[in-house]
Amino acid sequence: MQSQPEALGAWGVAIALAGGAVRGSIPYMFVSLGECLTEKSGKINLGMEGVLLMGAMTAFAISDITGSPWLGVAAAAAVGLLLGAMHAWLTQQSSVNDVAAGIAMILFGSGLAFFFGKRFVAPMAPQLPLINLGSWSGSPAIQSALRISPLFFAGAGLAFCLHVLFTRTSWGLKIRAVGDDPQAARALGIPVNTVRFLAITLGASLAAVGGAHLTLYFPGIWSEGISGGQGLMAVALVIFARWSPRRCLAAALLFGGAQALGPSLQSLGVNGYYYLFNASPYLLTLVLMIATCSPNRSLAGMPGALGKK
Amino acid sequence: MILSRREWIACLAAPLAAKSVSRPLTFGFIYNGPKNDLGYNQSHAEGRASLAQLRWLKTVEEASVPETVAAEESMRDMIFQDGATAVFATSFGHFDPFTIDVARENPSVQFFHCGGLYDETRHPKNIGIYFGFIDEVEYLSGMLAGLATRSGRLGFVAAKPIPQVLRNINSFTLGARSVNPRVTTTVVFTGDWVLPVREAEASSSLVDQGIDVLTGHTGSPRVIVQIAERRGVSACGYQFNQFSMAPRGFLTGAEWAWGTVYAKYAAMIRSDKSVINGGIPRRVTGTLKDEFCKLSPYGPSVTETARARVAAAKVRILDGSLEIYRGPIKDNEGNTVIAAGKTLKIEDVELDKMNWMVEGVEGRAHS
Q1: B167 and B200: one domain?
Q2: Which residues of B touch A144 (CB under 8 A)?
């Protein structure tokens, strides 16, 4: 074999996992933060998968048409607001179940995205500019891993902002009150339905921005298979993050890294069990659900009125 | 898809008027995915589109037809509402049991399925199978990869370790090693045909390991080609021309030319031949020579010498003097899989059972 100055060997796996954690975590991060906000107010939005797809398609289309990826992100956020408003309106009707409405929203959002997305399957759209933190390194692999999407910093910052919002501000207290005991909140004069409406619409808007990451950076195309169920996994992720925005951030990083495990091990020449390694994000979901859920106790941190009227 | 439904409604309004006029031939096409995926589905959709010049032929199509009973409904709609007399089902999973069932219900309509295993004893007579053998084009594409690589390492992102994918990995590697015997190909399996995020991760990991030419076999390798471009390495496409995804690093690619196949069927059906009475062969297959597949136009970085070498190899393939599965060929575990002095033709059924990876491939066919 000739010398390969660029090959990284086992370090490649570490770099791939770190890089994968950063670039792969972004959709999980935005969807789970949006869902966290929604669920803190006592509502569930399972339709995040549909919102993610609509966000992804809209961002790609608008970026393609206007030439500005940031307009694409803004348009995705706006579409998320609309879909969120729809879900909020639906679930505040009497005898509409959150989960059933959420499943309907998955079908609606994905169907709509596939319908409008037909035109945009082939072309490339202008991609989001990246923040280059790796110029100090001579290794292209490290440079590539450290070329980070601004959405990553936005999402990470948001996790801390939401944490402060929930724990330190009166608005956060209102959201939590509505989520824990709507009757008591109503007695205090908090407009329960308005708070929930805002939480759901803003939450969905965040999820749609997560979708924009898929089409405007990684992998950077529009395809009907783009989400691969990430919207649903991110909803599960909120449960084992026990409704804490900061834990959502950590969990999203873990999932992003797990996603990169299978491909990076194979590229190093570890060829066995690749189906198992490729399934690692899903296995991780299962393991964490089993570890964190028990029929004998309710989950610490769970909003008291979650999914109830 | 939606437009053709509108057309059906329009057709319903004037059924009697149309009756007296001699109807043009109508062919129906169903694809498993979107018809602009820059991949397998688009290769079929372009093939259909090339029939538009035939005035006597009308075609209807439906994209994103799942490999479920929904495929049967699409085929029935084409037969009953559009009057299709031949239906082309392009995805492997459309065959059993969906195409078979609809074929049994409509014995006068002909069905043509891309790939699939026809069984004379169990399947209706009005089904024909068509397929192309693209190994030789992969070989030529591999030659360019072998000439372009500086690290001597190629990367191949593949969906599943099935014979058809293994054939492409092996012929690509054989081509690359024919110009540079030290070249190796590292394979990453993703597990399914359309997994854009995982394909992107796999491509990125391969580049991290020092691989400087990427290719793949998925529903549409455009993500792989795009990541290669972004990371500044070269790429070879597959299924369809992916040059637009990598204007700098694109070398070439192996792409399908289904238009040839569909034109062939159209001509046969127009002269009242049918697969039912044996006028049309049960299996219609072809290779590079039959123009069932072709090499994508070269990218800007391909040198004149490289072009000349590939052109020379192509001539030798076409005249039969270069056969790519010529023994001795060893697999990557050291076993001789094709003995010295033995040559397997591209159409040889033995190759459809391929479960090995040729020497020089880093990867395993079995998990």
Answers
A1: yes
A2: 204, 207-208, 231
